[in-house]
Amino acid sequence: EVHDYVYVTDVAAGCVAAMTSDSHGHVMNICTGVDTTLKQVVEIVLDAYGAKNLKPIYQEDKRTVKSAAVDKLNFSRAKAEAEIGWTPKLSADAGIRRYIAWANARG
Length: 107
Description:
The protein has helices at 8-19, 38-48, 78-84, 92-105; strands at 2-3, 36-37. The chain is 41% helix and 4% strand. By secondary structure, it is mainly alpha-helical.
């Protein structure tokens, strides 16, 4: 599966930008526009913890129900950029690493 991961502070900033803009009644995506696979997320997490030598084993569990979600959706942030001047500040990699640092600091 492929997803568009957006860090929470970027989502909040997008919401504030939309609420304080002159653009009303428009639908737009608050997204990065960048595809990130679950495999990439695992690799980022392993690297952030200094565990690059670990190799995950991926296998399909036949007992679980397959997600009804599609494997990939394409999102564009062009409308948010044009109408409310919003762009994300963090990549998926940077956001995951920031979250891990935040969680580790809290024990």
